[in-house]
TrEMBL record:
Polar residues: bias regions: 11-23
Organism for this UniProt entry: Suhomyces tanzawaensis NRRL Y-17324
Short name of any one Pfam family annotated for the protein: tRNA-synt_1c
Protein name: Glutamate--tRNA ligase, mitochondrial
GO biological process, one term: glutamyl-tRNA aminoacylation
SUPFAM superfamilies associated with the record: An anticodon-binding domain of class I aminoacyl-tRNA synthetases, Nucleotidylyl transferase
């Protein structure tokens, strides 16, 4: 009977802290078979935070040995995504380092050397079984009672005729009869054994070298982590069943495995595993949606971690910069339950970080510089960067994403299309617009006071709603004085005039 994955074998209290007290070396090892998405970013971020919080190093390694599935621009996308999120890589394909190369496809000779060591020790063997035979073994294994996912019968290890080298042969690792228990820093001591059917003995002999001479993930990640002196591996729970195999490979070489932390799955609010559509959204596509990197990092950091409470019983703000997250990050505050992805929370953080950027002169200038080209494009090239800076300064605190300038606040850069509007003020209020056109005071507030004095039957709400209809089609977000300042006196009067015509025509 298989031991449940999340049933720790010990019941003793968790040590006071599982967070390292010395500098660690962590790595992010994506496969460039697609764009960086939320789950991958979370893995990268936690490894980054652990390295930075301990004064250690964060490595980037590309696991690109599955040559058939590589996406041409995926490697560059990984670099660009990490850079956009302000996650500095200490060692990697771009930055170099003394433990390179950092692309697995460039390490073929290294893997050949280490696989030969296992062959010489009798801990690995060549397998020439055909795909048809392997498929037949899988099918028969599933028909056993009890069925088993361990399918290979070790024919090529037992039969010398099948142990010779051929063009399509692979190399298998000779797995131990029983995997050792291991410690996961988050889940405790775990004993994960495959389910065997002892009436028809099969073996968990994983392939470690493919017929093309390139290693499988299982073998390459063990060799690389050891040679690159990785001390801690943070990865998703889906890798838990593979961990005993990896530790067995470490033991076969006489190496000490790193410390493991397996973090929970990302799920929707309905507690379902994120679908491809939800979870595989490219990180850089968030940039196109007007999300700030600071907000995205803040959002992703909370997928299985929570900041410690500074004062017992008093909640701590979850809105944090990357530097604040690094200072607060500890493995002690990781959570075991699935992490729910709630887009509304992302936009909450985004609004917070847009406001922070607006109030910081340097960050505000960076925000203007990095987003002006897009604004210049969709606004028809009519406005300069100073105008865009003014738009951001005025409108920014009400924005949940920067793309709302284009989608919700088009009145900022183009005339209001009154024909699209369904809510039109009563003709009784036309005189409000007409009177404002002829008042000499430049202060909108002063003009409102004068209108109320001249027309006791009016309310401020009547005036504000009528004027907002004229200036923005009724869209809120800016106070009317700021909107008037942004549009300028000429455009202000033109919109009052056009709105007056529309209201009269609809009467």
């Amino acid at each position: 009977m298989t031991t449940p994955i999340f049933a720790p074998l010990r019941t003793s209290k968790t040590p006071p802290s599982i967070h390292p007290t010395t500098p660690v070396r962590t790595r992010f090892a994506p496969s460039p078979t697609g764009y960086l998405h939320l789950g991958s970013l979370r893995t990268a971020l936690y490894n980054y935070l652990l390295a930075r919080s301990t004064g250690g190093q964060f490595l980037l390694r590309l696991e690109d040995t599955d040559r058939t599935r590589l996406v041409p621009d995926a490697e560059q996308n990984i670099y660009d995504s990490l850079r956009w999120c302000n996650m500095t890589v200490d060692e990697g394909p771009e930055t170099g380092g003394k433990y390179g190369p950092y692309r697995q496809s460039d390490r073929k000779d290294i893997y050949q050397h280490y696989v030969q060591i296992l062959l010489d020790k009798g801990l690995a063997y060549r397998c020439s079984c055909s795909k048809d035979r392997l498929n037949s073994l899988r099918e028969s294994a599933m028909k056993l009672k009890p069925p088993t996912t361990v399918t290979y019968d070790r024919k090529c290890a037992f039969d010398p005729q099948h142990s010779h080298t051929s063009d399509d042969s692979v190399i298998r690792f000779k797995s131990p009869d029983k995997y050792e228990q291991f410690d996961d820093l988050l889940h405790g001591k775990l004993d994960l054994q495959p389910q065997y059917n002892y009436n028809d003995r099969r073996y968990d002999d994983i392939v470690i070298m493919k017929s093309d001479g390139l290693p499988t993930y299982h073998f390459a990640n063990v060799v690389d982590d050891h040679l690159m002196k990785i001390t801690h591996v943070i990865r998703g729970e889906e890798w838990l069943p593979s961990t005993p195999k990896h530790i067995a490979l470490y033991r076969a070489f006489g190496w000490e495995p790193p410390s493991y932390v397996h973090i929970p799955l990302l799920t929707s609010l309905g507690d379902k595993k994120l679908s491809k559509r939800q979870g595989d959204i490219g990180i850089l596509s968030m940039k196109e949606k007007g999300i700030l990197p600071e907000a995205l990092v803040n959002f992703v950091a909370l997928f299985g971690w929570s900041p410690p409470r500074e004062t017992p019983g008093v909640s701590t703000s979850e809105s944090m910069t990357l530097d604040q997250i690094i200072k607060s990050f500890s493995l002690d505050h990781l959570t075991k339950g699935n992490a729910k992805v709630n887009d509304s929370k992302l936009y909450f953080f985004n609004k917070h970080h847009i406001t922070l950027a607006i109030n910081d002169p340097q960050k505000f200038q960076e925000l203007v510089d990095s987003n002006f080209d897009k604004f210049h494009s969709f606004s028809g090239g009519k406005y300069n960067k100073d105008y865009f800076a003014k738009v951001l300064k005025y409108l920014g605190p009400s924005l949940s994403s920067l793309d709302e300038i284009e989608t919700l606040h088009r009145y900022i850069y183009e005339p209001v299309n009154y024909a699209e509007l369904t809510k039109i003020p009563s003709p009784d209020f036309v005189h409000i617009l007409d009177r404002l056109l002829h008042l000499s005071s430049t202060s909108f507030d002063e003009n409102v006071k004068l209108l109320l004095k001249e027309n006791p039957e009016l309310t401020k709400k009547d005036i504000f709603q009528t004027v907002r209809f004229a200036l923005s089609g009724g869209t809120s977000g800016l106070t009317i004085p700021l909107l008037i300042d942004l549009l300028g006196e000429q455009e202000f009067k033109e919109r009052l005039t056009r709105a007056t015509e529309v209201i009269i025509k609809k009467a």
